């Protein structure tokens, strides 16, 4: 075992970068991320960090030979929580038992680095306050956008601005599927199958596809960037499975492609937030993100738009974020202090963005359909911009698209509800915002 | 005058974010950036920061009414250096007198925030060491890429990676000119004139166009990201004026456009560095940067490529970077400690990148030219990839392009030198790397 002295992480005690002390590190969870953290600590060792414990269930099957013999492998969480480790890396995911163990760790004088977006989105504020009062660090740079250091940028690098919006592509699985549908003109189901075959989608991809994963990350971005509390459950989430191959063809006609876009903006003491498929210009930074990449765009009153992009998932990129946080914690730099003093405000949350819209109808063709749709939209005060119709589809199941001038999404929803019982509709209309 | 207590910025004394102390701030230079810093401090006040002094020559002509009456306006630098200000913001630019005044400020117990890329590129290491030993902060986030917080990202956000390369578009004037030439098919001279009319280029744009400006920023990125000392004078700089409108047409034929690319990579204890026009794929993040925007791409062993883009110049974006640094300094966070303990190494510097190349010849046409060129290249061991020739040019002054498989730029230069006396050349051949 190491003979390194225990590093005392006492609040307000600034530990200079030159400190020769080494922080003792435990990893909870030896899946993709936990294993990658261990790899970097083993193959690119940092004198400030020493791996001392690895916790996982069924640990003997996980044990690898390339870590130091001094590392203790255990499936007993108390053996870690009661040890002399200084910093715990939590890569378990999910709310429980992660939350309980993180609380215990903080109360027992350990700092915590986590990659757990659900934990931070739902319990981040309480855990940050607990960490602050315990005099420990809580860092979670890996919880959003993997290896892209966007939380640090929002919190410190753009601290001099007044941020009014954050948006981005936060889910690599959805982006892989949509960019494959765009490039190869395949169906949603085929693109999903391909993503699963290549390991870009999990066996159960529901939390990726329904927007839950991105909504958790958006909540963290809003808390840090906009200093606004945003519950993932308050955020409108439209599943990406509503996108069909034909939508890419129509989108291209107006110079756009389709991405799962997560966005939150502050406007007069209200937070507008949504996670949904959206049309974005082919030339935009959102359209240029392919495969499993992520991007976050911060919009500031003074600095305009600043974009951060890179690998949003994967073992090594996420491990880079974890190790950057480990170095920060070993040096006594903390997000916990920050969040404790920038308590996110509880603004009213709305999903009622005003934007141009794209609406796809699939109809059994007969005269008068456009007139009926136009009347319903007009009744809602909504102006039609263009009607797009590609040839080569059967009259019994004819898709066409109506693009609309800017209107609130709730007004559009109401107009479409009024059309819902129309006999010509083969399926309910699908609508996406157009983000120029 | 303020009755705020003087903030003591003593090294190793961690000042929590909750500190109610207010740092007293002086601005040196009331040009675009200095004025924008004053604007944000006045219109979006931060309780941690109080503007107390503005220094400029001929100060009475600069004085504005929208700052607090408590601010002292002066053209006497000693009135600032001998005052009780805590932090000095240096926006003067150039090496002298900025260097002398920054040294004096640090020695008199003031922290310094600077936007001065030449100062940091040439004197950053010594000034950081001085700051460290004086127990003061020296921060310079505004010196590279304006409002894009890339230095912080390289230093802390990607601290867990091993960076092996940094590249980017670091000069907004060049990027404005090249992206206008691309979009509007205008000549270099016309695009430059337009940039000057719109305020995107200075009356004397030579340090932008010849690469000096970008080379200074690249040197700072290499010091922070690669921990490699790189003198701007050791970096190969090819002026962007060598690009002609016809080059965009040929570049498009191979799916590329042209950008002024600054890049530095670490390879076996050598730093490769250059600032030059280069062909980049139309789909790359470098090609997607238009107008006066900047982008920096960091390449890591573990995290792959991470990109940062936004407004690389302009008063307000640069002021955001300055104020983010002011907040960091008021909280006791420092780059000086970092650089003092990550002393950039003095690797051997080379510009001899191995890449595919684009070579434009302008010739007086006659039989045998291709044979002569091919022989000269072959003698240098260089393989031709393709020969591109657009129609519609006079035989007496015929431009055509040869693309080459990867070769060292020095080998290419030598082969072209051997061709220099050929009678068919109307002008010396122009060559750019192709960055895939």
Summed over residues and divided by their number, the pLDDT of chain A gives a mean of: 91
What sort of overall outline of chain A do the alpha carbons produce when their principal axes are compared?
elongated
The chain pair with the largest interface is: A-B, 57 and 56 residues
Q: Superfamily at the CATH H level of the largest domain in chain A?
A: NAD(P)-binding Rossmann-like Domain
Instruction: Report, as a whole number of angstroms, the end-to-end distance of chain A.
Output: 58 Å
Would you give the CATH topology of the largest domain in chain A? Answer: Rossmann fold
Describe this structure in words.
2 copies of one chain form a homodimer. Chain A is elongated and about 80 Å long. In chain A, the strands form 3 sheets. In chain A, strands 7, 8, 9, 10, 11, 12 and 13 form a 7-stranded mixed β-sheet that branches. A 6-stranded parallel β-sheet of chain A has the order 3-2-1-4-5-6, sandwiched between helices. Chain A folds into 3 domains: 1-146 and 314-351, 3-Layer(aba) Sandwich (Rossmann fold); 166-311, Dihydrodipicolinate Reductase, domain 2 (2-Layer Sandwich); 354-433, Alpha-Beta Plaits. The termini of chain A are far apart. In chain A, a hairpin with a 3-residue loop joins strand 11 and strand 12 (304-311). The first copy, chain A, has 15 helices and 17 strands. Chain A has helices at 32-43, 59-62, 77-81, 98-107, 117-134, 150-157, 172-184, 188-197, 206-209, 212-226, 245-253, 315-330, 335-341, 369-379, 409-419; strands at residues 23-28, 49-55, 72-74, 87-90, 111-114, 138-139, 163-169, 236-237, 256-267, 270-281, 293-300, 304-311, 348-350, 354-363, 384-388, 398-408, 425-433. Chain A is of the alpha/beta class. At the A-B interface, helix 6, strand 12, helix 12 and helix 13 of A face helix 6, strand 12, helix 12 and helix 13 of B.
């Amino acid at each position: 075992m190491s003979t390194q002295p225990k590093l005392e992480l006492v609040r307000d005690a600034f530990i200079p970068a030159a400190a020769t002390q080494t922080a003792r590190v435990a990893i909870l969870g030896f899946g993709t991320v936990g294993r990658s953290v261990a790899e970097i600590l083993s193959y690119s060792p940092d004198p400030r960090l020493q791996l001392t414990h690895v916790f996982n269930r069924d640990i003997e099957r996980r044990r690898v030979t390339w870590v130091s013999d001094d590392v203790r492998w255990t499936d007993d969480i108390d053996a870690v929580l009661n040890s002399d480790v200084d910093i715990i890396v939590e890569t378990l995911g999910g709310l429980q038992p992660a939350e309980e163990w993180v609380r215990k760790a903080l109360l027992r004088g350990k700092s915590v680095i986590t990659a757990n977006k659900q934990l931070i989105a739902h319990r981040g504020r309480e855990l940050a306050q607990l960490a602050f009062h315990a005099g420990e660090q809580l860092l979670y740079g890996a919880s959003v956008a993997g290896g892209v250091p966007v939380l640090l940028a929002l919190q410190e690098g753009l601290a001099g601005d007044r941020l009014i919006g954050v948006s981005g592509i936060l889910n690599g699985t959805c982006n892989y599927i949509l960019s494959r549908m765009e490039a190869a003109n395949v169906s949603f189901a085929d693109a999903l199958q391909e993503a699963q075959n290549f390991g870009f989608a999990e066996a159960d991809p529901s939390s990726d596809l329904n927007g839950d994963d991105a909504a958790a990350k958006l909540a963290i971005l809003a808390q840090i960037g906009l200093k606004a509390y945003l519950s993932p459950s308050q955020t409108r989430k439209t599943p990406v499975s509503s996108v069909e191959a034909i939508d890419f063809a129509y989108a291209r006609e107006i110079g756009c492609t389709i991405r799962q876009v997560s966005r939150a903006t502050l406007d007069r003491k209200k937070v507008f937030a949504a996670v949904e498929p959206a049309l974005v210009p082919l030339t935009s930074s959102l359209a240029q993100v392919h495969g499993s990449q992520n991007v976050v765009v911060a919009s500031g009153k003074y600095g305009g738009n600043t974009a951060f992009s890179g690998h949003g998932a994967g073992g090594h990129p996420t491990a880079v974020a974890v190790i950057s946080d480990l170095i920060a914690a070993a040096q006594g730099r903390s997000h916990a202090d920050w969040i404790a003093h920038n308590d996110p405000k509880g603004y009213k949350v709305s999903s009622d963005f005003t934007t141009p819209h794209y609406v796809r109808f699939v109809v059994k063709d007969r005269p008068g359909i456009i007139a009926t749709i136009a009347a319903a939209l007009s009744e809602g005060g909504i102006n039609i911009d263009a009607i797009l119709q590609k040839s080569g589809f059967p009259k019994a199941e004819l898709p066409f698209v109506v693009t609309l001038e800017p209107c609130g999404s709730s007004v559009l929803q109401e107009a479409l509800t009024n059309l819902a019982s129309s006999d010509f509709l083969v399926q309910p209309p699908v609508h996406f915002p157009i983000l120029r």
